[in-house]
Amino acid sequence: MTDEPHQVTCCIAGGGPAGIMLGFLLARAGIAVIVLEKHRDFLRDFRGDTIHPSTLEIMHELGLLETFLARPHQELRELRGIVGDSEIKLADFAHLPTRCRFIALMPQWDFLNFLAEAGSRFPGFHLGMESEVTDLVEEAGRIVGVRVRTPDGTFEIRADLVVGADGRHSLVRERAGLRVNNLGAPIDVLWMRLSKSPGDPSQSAGRINYGRLLVMLDRGDYWQCAFVIRKGGFDAIRERGIELFRDEIVRIAPFLRDRVAELREWDDVKLLTVTVDRLQRWWRPGLLCIGDCAHAMSPIGGVGINLAIQDAVAAANILAVPLRNGRLTDADLEAVQRRRTLPTRLIQAIQVAVQERVLDRVLGSDKPITAPWPLRLFNHLPWLARIPARLVGLGFRPEHVRSPSAQS
Q1: Are the C-beta atoms of residues 192 and 266 closer than 8 Å to each other?
Q2: pLDDT band of 65, cuts 50, 70, 90
Q3: Pick from 27, 10, 37: which is nearest to 119 by CA?
Q4: What is the 3-state secondary structure (H, E, C) of the chain?
Q5: How far apart are CA 354 and CA 238, in angstroms?
Q6: What separation in angstroms does the CA of 213 have from each of 112, 183, 194, 270?
Q7: How sure is the predictor about 374, in pLDDT bands with cuts at 50, 70 and 90?
Q8: Interatomic CA distance for residues 276 and 296, integer angstroms
Q9: CA atoms of 323 and 29, how far apart (whole Å)
Q10: Parallel/antiparallel/unpaired status of strands 153-164 and 142-150
Q11: Which of 115, 100, 85, 177 has the alpha carbon at shortest distance from 308?
Q12: Does residue 215 form part of some domain?
């Protein structure tokens, strides 16, 4: 960090999808921006790895899609659920009005490294790793910068705009005193990986039965698995022992019997504490929050990354010109929230409804289940699968790149 600027036009706290994408877009528009990431690298397991068609469309608009898809990834063209003994196609992306009619599965660190490399081609883009934002700098009621701790010491970075993109446990929104509405989540998720065998099912799928829900994503040579549990139930599961937990996985997915022993100890299982919340106001003078910092999403649908990317694109569309011209106003910050509030509220409402009306009931019974008739209709009326595909693949009000490029 010793070579990084201490005065920039925009300082972004958090090097996740929202922060890196916004940093790239602003640098592309000729704006001096620094993204601060507290970790040494992006290499962490069990972060969201789904890149949805809406995000792939943005990559196309930026001229990056072909290079991006040249990197190792898997393509998920439909979503299937196995409810009791019934297999149901829940979402079919084949009819989306996008160039990529699939979800790309790629480790998030590869996605972030790709965006960081793309941003590095612009002189205004700076990425500070091992740079932890510890506080905000405020003068006369306006946020004018941040305090940063690095291996080289602690110092201030001044900026016309500070962006909080530091996730659901955001220090930025805490220090800013922004009020959070907690929408509730009755579930948590246990993440793990299990190897694949030649005789395994060919499709990624969610499996629901016996009061258990297991989602399995095909990652090439292994399955990335999400085991849904009741909120706060992990301690009780641990007390019962890893052997009983393996048995629960086998009960819902018997073909995994020969490899659940790969879960040798609880260190092989990672807890994701699910939170669904939303800031009442996403901004203060000199400060804007986006992504999970503004609205933590449930893992249902895997849309969190893509909502964060949509926030970043909308923010760049609205803020790039005012920032570049030195004319940023509070009205510009409010416009970002106004643009992104409705799609966020609608997606969160759907997630909360699924949590409360489906998952909470499923986890409340240990008996075998049969697929309810509304789900069975999907097998008789295949066009129904287009509706969830649009909600998951595009969401509400998908954004398009309209921020300027300094190279054009």
Answers
A1: no
A2: very high
A3: 27
A4: CCCCCCEEEEEEECCCHHHHHHHHHHHHCCCCEEEECCCCCCCCCCCCCEECHHHHHHHHHCCCHHHHHCCCCEEECEEEEEECCEEEEEEEHHHCCCCCCCEEECCHHHHHHHHHHHHCCCCCEEEECCCEEEEEEEECCEEEEEEEEECCEEEEEEEEEEEECCCCCCHHHHHHCCCEEECCCCEEEEEEEEECCCCCCCCCEEEEECCEEEEEEECCCEEEEEEEEECCCHHHHHHHCHHHHHHHHHHHCHHHCCCHHHCCCHHHCEEECCCCEEECCCEECCEEECHHHCCCCCCHHHCHHHHHHHHHHHHHHHHHHHHHHCCCCHHHHHHHHHHHHHHHHHHHHHHHHHHHHHHHHHCCCCCCCCCCHHHHHHHHCHHHHHHHHHHHHCCCCCCCCCCCCCCC
A5: 26
A6: 30, 22, 16, 16
A7: confident
A8: 5
A9: 10
A10: antiparallel
A11: 115
A12: yes
Q: Name the region of 126 (left: φ>0; alpha: ψ -120 to 50; beta: rest).
A: beta
The more confident residue out of 122 and 302 is 122
Provide the domain limits for residue 225. 187-230+233-272
pLDDT band at 372 (very low <50, low <70, confident <90, very high): confident
Q: What is the pTM of this model?
A: 0.93
Number of domains in the chain: 2
Q: Is residue 26 part of a domain?
A: yes
Q: At what angle do helices 53-61 and 304-325 cross, to 10 degrees?
A: 30
Quick one: pLDDT at residue 400? 97
Residues 117 and 266 in one domain: no
Residue 290: both structure tokens together: 């986006």
Structure tokens at 328: 């940023």
pLDDT of residue 47: 63
Distance CA 199, CA 313 (A): 42
What is the widest separation between alpha-carbon atoms in the chain? 65
Among candidates 117, 4, 33, which has minimal Cα distance to 288? 33
Q: Which amino acid is at 4?
A: E
Do 224 and 279 fall into the same domain? no
Strand 125-128 with 132-139, pairing = unpaired
- Tell me the Cα Rg of the chain: 22
Cα 170 from Cα 133, distance rounded (Å): 10
Same domain, 209 and 268: yes
Residue 230's contacts (CB-CB under 8 Å, 6 or more residues apart) are 186, 187, 188, 363
